[in-house]
Amino acid sequence: MKGAVDWNELWKLAMMSFPMATTHSGTGNRSSGFAEQCNRYLMGRKGKERTEMEISKMKLNPEYSVLDIGSGQGRSAIPISKRVKTVTAIDPSMIMMRYLSEHMAKEGAKNIVCINKRWEDIRLGHDIEPHDIAIASHSLGMFDMEEALKKIDAAAKRYVYLFANAGGHRDEVLLDVIYDEKQPSQQLDYIYLYNILHDLDIYANVEILDSELELEFDSLDDAMNEWRLVYGIPPERESALRAYAEKTLVKDENESSHYLRRKQKIAMIWWKKEDYDL
Asked: Can you give the three-state secondary structure of the chain, one letter per residue?
């Protein structure tokens, strides 16, 4: 039941005000640079550590079917596929689907069904049937979050697991430098999701987890080139961004690589379906 605050409308306003909304909105318009960056981080050491931490929290079963919404390159779908019967991976980005296919072939994952569609365009009972578990890990960027969450709930027979940032976007400091002003820090924060669920009479569980971002670059110039590709750096912000990179990037012992490291808080939101069927 909705209260005095309409959290879904607040979510929409936050999405419209966020400068990277089209990149993170699940529209399928992710740039090749953004996709490559995600693939490199999430399939790297720190990304795999975060994935294993998240998966360890799920109640998986060898006979279960799992729906991975916004699967990206398969960083959750592939390891989960080794512990369950089947996985359906849905993602709107053709680039991410290409990475997923490559990782599936490398890992010998043959029990994953891939669907290249936006979650908003998926029809239950037509494109997919309900699965035992539905997950969405750092992939909830739909404009109408209330409708997206209703469909996620309807698509799960046993459990739903959602993972989102707690305390703002992972690149908010970088975005502040690029845009030369403080950016909305709560755009992807879990509290919107939690309160929208509450308005849907789903009183979900929440656990805050510690994680760490680590991006590796060959050089400072490599970092600058990647950020240009991913974020479209305005020319007048180049010098400020280079100063940020020189101050922030950490070199390894051989100075052959540069790392961007940042502590993160992650929220796991989950509920058991027999308790909260809509």
From this structure: CCCCCCHHHHHHHHHHHCCCHHHHCCCCCCCHHHHHHHHHHHCCHHHHHHHHHHHHCCCCCCCCEEEEECCCCCCCHHHHHCCCCEEEEECCCHHHHHHHHHHHHHHCCCCEEEECCCHHHCCECCCECCEEEEEEECCCCCCCHHHHHHHHHHCEEEEEEEEEECCCCCCHHHHHHHHCCCCCCCCCEHHHHHHHHHHCCCCCEEEEEEEEEEEEECCHHHHHHHHHHHHCCCHHHHHHHHHHHHHHCEECCCCCCEEEEEEEEEEEEEEECCCCCC
